[in-house]
Amino acid sequence: MRDASAVVRELRTQRGWTQQDLATRARLSRSFVADVEAGKPTVESAKLFDLFQALGYEVALRDLTTGQVLR
Questions:
Q1: Which of 19, 20, 23, 26 has its CB 3.0 to 4.6 Å from that of 54, i.e. a possible disulfide?
Q2: Is the pTM of this model over 0.70?
């Protein structure tokens, strides 16, 4: 599994966005985005999901045995 901090940074830079651009779109602070990208372990998961939504992705639970996505 890839580290969320690396994924957020990669998706943000692919779009040419600054940390502030992403923070604005996710309605979060730039310092929160910086904490996520730095791999700070105390970030709130709900806010992390907001970042992925702002980047155009959703987070889903997938059964590792069947591959079925929980909806």
A1: 26
A2: yes
**Distance separating alpha carbons of residues 54 and 2, to the nearest angstrom:** 19
User: Do strands 69-70 and 61-62 pair parallel, antiparallel, or not at all (unpaired)?
Assistant: antiparallel
Q: Are 19 and 62 in contact (CB under 8 A)?
A: no
- Contact in structure between 26 and 54 (CB atoms under 8 Å): yes
Which 3 state secondary structure label does DSSP give 55? coil
What amino acid is encoded at 63 in this protein? Answer: D
Each residue's pLDDT expressed in tens, for the chain with a length of 71 residues: 468 899 999 999 999 999 999 999 999 999 999 999 999 988 898 999 999 999 999 988 889 899 999 87
| Short-list 59, 71, 64, CA closest to 4 | 59
CA dist 6 and 11 (Å) reads 9
